[in-house]
Write a structure and sequence with these properties.
There is one protein chain. The chain is an alpha+beta fold and 398 residues long. The protein has 3 domains: 96 residues, Thrombin, subunit H, CATH 2.40.10.10; 99 residues, Thrombin, subunit H (Beta Barrel), CATH 2.40.10.10; 115 residues, Roll (Pdz3 Domain). The protein has 9 helices and 22 strands. The strands form 5 sheets. It has a 6-stranded antiparallel beta barrel. A 6-stranded antiparallel β-barrel has the order 7-8-9-12-11-10. Strands 14, 15, 18, 19, 20 and 21 form a 6-stranded antiparallel beta sheet that branches. Strand 18 and strand 19 form a beta hairpin. The longest helix has 14 residues. It is globular and about 105 Å long.
């Protein structure tokens, strides 16, 4: 057990004995304690809140990366000369000491899915720059998850002087009103710090893949183009979200005090999944479901409410196919509705997104219980146990 400091001693500038006593007291401090004391003395002209904020920035900023995506194109097929064209830029942060860096999908893709279709098939290069590095380092794309607007890159650790992973916090315990900090590269101005508060929780925003990202964190910390993919931190410097988009009325495209971040709990689950299994490793039942609007229309035609996810198609060889879940079928000039999933592990399913999130957030290789209304008939309700598989295994089989 470490001994406590000795009692405080007052010193007179003219008393050499007291000066000797001061040297004796300082000599009892460990190197860490002495360093902390010197830092506190040097920051004595700052308010406690300022000092804490400065400490977080100096400690965390070496983990924040500048990400730049370039298109690579041969300008002259005879000379073989290759030209590189800037495609987009954003922010990212170090995930682990193996060289993994996390950013937004739309940063490495040049925008949401489908939008950059004209250049979508051209080869591209992703460059990463960290504080302390003289030049950018080329990164490989380990995997992406467009629906959560996340991408995982990897740089060669031997080409980077230091890799300081961010401490990952949790978004489940966040409260509206607590302080947050954002570090990123708005408009290419590298390693910029902005501060604010958690303005709201539980926001659903549209991801780059077209599906909503649930439970996002809303903040008034200034977030602008170039901040995308950068970390949103709590007052201790722990990751609580990944800045992904801003509210831009009338296409302003700059900060108006409403920004959104993918929650840290979602980031942790998706990033670990990508690192371990690669892209398209999300759990899947092997079904596609009827759009919510169409389901409501059928409900009005039947004069009853259809609340759940109606199976439209079943992938052959999938877990759903093995349990003979029934898709929609054309029959006698009409349509026979498929099975409707109304609950997962006892939690009600009201819309398609409820089902998709319940499946994707399940543990790998863990069985789940589905409550199924066969062919949407109220008197044919069953409970079945099913184990999701990786989505890419279904794509390969298909």
């Amino acid at each position: 057990m470490r001994s406590r400091f000795t009692s405080p001693v007052a010193f007179d500038s003219g008393d050499h004995g007291s000066l000797d006593k001061l040297k004796e007291v300082v000599g009892q401090l460990s190197p860490t304690e002495l360093k902390l004391l010197l830092e506190q003395l040097s920051a004595s002209d700052l308010a406690p809140s300022e000092s804490a904020r400065v400490d977080v920035f100096e400690r965390v900023s070496p983990s924040v990366a500048f990400i730049q995506t370039k298109l690579v194109q041969t300008s002259n097929p005879f000379s073989g000369k290759v030209e590189e064209y800037p495609m987009g830029a954003g922010s990212g942060f170090v995930w682990d000491t193996d060289g993994h860096v996390v950013t937004n999908f739309h940063v490495v893709n040049g925008g949401p899915l489908g939008r950059p279709s004209r250049v979508g098939q051209l080869p591209r290069k992703v460059m990463v720059k960290l504080p302390g590095c003289d030049e950018q380092v080329e990164a490989t794309v380990v995997g992406t998850e467009p629906d959560k607007d996340l991408a995982v890159l990897r740089v060669d650790p031997s080409k980077v002087k230091h890799l300081r992973p961010l401490e990952v916090g949790t978004s489940a315990a966040l409260r509206v009103g607590q302080n947050v900090l954002a570090i990123g590269n708005p408009f290419g101005l590298d390693w910029t710090l902005t501060t604010g508060i958690v303005s709201a929780l539980g926001r659903d925003i549209e991801g780059a893949g077209g599906r909503p990202i649930k439970d996002c964190v809303q903040t008034d910390a200034a977030i602008n183009p170039g901040n995308s993919g950068g970390p949103l931190l709590d007052s201790q410097g722990r990751l609580i979200g990944v800045n992904t988009m801003i509210y831009a009325p009338n296409g302003i495209g700059a900060n108006v005090g409403i920004g959104f971040a993918v929650p840290a709990d979602t980031v942790k689950r998706v990033v670990n999944q990508i690192i371990q299994f690669g892209s398209n490793a999300r759990p899947s039942l092997g079904v596609s479901v009827l759009p919510d609007q169409v389901r409501k229309q059928y409900g009005r035609s039947l004069d009853r409410e259809l609340e759940g996810a109606i199976i439209a198609e079943v992938v052959p060889g999938s877990p759903a196919d093995a349990l003979k879940l029934a898709p929609m079928q054309k029959q006698w000039g009409g349509i026979l509705l498929g099975d409707m999933i109304t609950a997962v592990n006892g939690t009600p399913i009201r819309v398609n997104e409820d089902l998709l999130c319940a499946v994707e957030e399940s543990e790998p290789d863990a069985p789940m219980t589905l409550t199924v209304m066969r062919n949407c008939e109220p008197d044919r309700v069953e409970q079945i146990e099913i184990t999701p598989v990786q989505r890419k295994s279904l794509m390969e089989a298909r």
